[in-house]
Write a structure and sequence with these properties.
- This protein is 34% helix and 27% strand.
- It is of the alpha/beta class and 371 residues long.
- The structure holds zinc ion.
- Residues 175-268 form the Peptidase M20 dimerisation domain.
- One of its GO terms (molecular function) is metal ion binding.
- This is M20 family peptidase.
Length: 371
């Protein structure tokens, strides 16, 4: 395929851009690093067709590239923050055998550079693309607090959303992601002297111990619903009947229905000890991304293009959330995993497979063209 040949011919140049971008290490929350990475994006995408604008947020700049084209806009989601504190890798960028290794090279700076080449390809060949809105965000790895409203506002006008997170470890695209919730269950008891008059107290730690087993029992492994009561605190001193105790619970589920079932059950928990009270707070921070006929049709388009490129892509499902969860929850057909092929996400050995770069970049270029 012609596009594939074009990408292959530009692989050395692609690697230079990828290296320059990855070397500007940009862990979430690192103002200076994020600023430097945003400057790379401005230099790279600024000269392309369209208008690049910038909005500063407390978590770093959000960049928006708007490009005119056919029909309602297609939203492209990219985050340029990474999970790695600066200097985590022995070298910020390294080519070894068929791998490029570096912080964020796979999640997801590689996907962003693939988009750069997909757009350069469209300009070089004069190909028509749909209208595009590309968001480059600085806070995905810490929950997208600042970016979420901007993503949702752009999604409301979009006919589709493409997410440039990496594919699954098997190389598949992502059509489903679990919803992610964080809840706090607090037991309120009553303090008393443990030696003098313990009978006047209500032990919150004991109360919570009863409840934690009930929380665990809400899990449904068959349906993929998991509950992790992973952080636990309570009491003040060993000679004081514990007045307060709480547990933080991580919930993951594939469907809204399951989230609803668990939330309802958490709120219905009844205290076991006389005089104890329970409080549940928190909620979903990423809604479920469930496949729809429209998102599967989008996947099917990508699958057919992949086939022509020699890729056999399947509709993947993953437990972790992304910004695609927000767009899918608004009913926008969402396809995720369109970044580069590689592995070891969030590890200090994170890499992309160099020889697979042209095919993934061509897949993105062709998919944009086909929409
Ligand atoms: Zn990511």
């Amino acid at each position: 395929m012609e596009t594939l040949e074009w990408m292959k011919a530009r692989l050395p140049e692609f690697l230079k851009d990828l290296e320059a971008f990855v070397r500007r290490e940009s862990p979430s929350g690192d103002k200076e690093g994020l600023e430097a990475a945003a400057a790379f994006l401005e230099e790279a995408f600024g000269p392309l067709r369209g208008r690049l604008s910038r909005k500063d947020t407390p978590l770093g700049p959000v960049l928006l590239l708007k490009r005119d084209g056919r029909g309602e806009p297609v939203l492209v989601l990219c985050h340029y923050d990474t999970v790695h504190p600066k200097g985590s890798f022995p070298e910020a960028f390294r080519l070894a055998r068929d791998r490029a290794v570096g912080p964020g090279v796979y999640d997801m700076k590689g996907g962003i550079v693939a988009l750069l080449y997909a757009l350069r390809h469209a300009e070089a060949t004069g190909r028509e693309l749909p209208a595009l809105e590309v968001l480059f965000t600085p806070d995905e790895e810490v929950g997208s607090k600042e970016s979420r409203p901007l993503i949702e506002a752009a999604a409301r006008k979009a006919r589709a959303a493409l997410v440039l997170e990496p594919p699954t470890p098997e190389g598949d695209l992502k059509v489903a992601r679990k919803g992610v919730g964080l809840y706090r269950l607090k037991a309120q008891g009553k303090a008393a002297h443990q030696g003098v008059e313990p009978e006047r107290g209500v032990n919150a730690v004991l109360e919570l111990a009863h409840q934690i087993l009930r929380v665990g029992a809400l899990e449904d492994r068959e349906k993929g619903t998991t509950l992790g009561p992973n952080v636990l605190r309570g009491g003040t001193a060993s000679n004081v009947v514990a007045e307060e105790a709480w547990v933080e619970i991580d919930l993951r589920a594939w469907t809204r229905e399951e989230v609803g079932r668990v939330e309802e059950a958490l709120r219905a928990l009844k205290p076991v000890l006389p005089g104890a009270r329970l409080e549940v707070s928190g909620g979903l921070n990423r809604p479920t991304m469930e496949p729809t006929p429209e998102s599967l049709a989008l996947f099917e388009k990508a699958r057919a293009i992949g086939e022509a490129l020699g890729l056999s892509l399947r509709p993947g499902r993953v437990g972790g959330g992304s910004d695609g969860n927000f767009t899918a929850a608004l009913g926008v057909p969402t396809l995720d995993g369109l970044g580069l092929y590689g592995g070891d996400a969030h590890q200090r050995s994170e890499y992309v497979v160099v020889s697979e770069i042209p095919r993934r970049a061509a897949l993105l270029a062709e998919l944009l063209h086909a929409l």
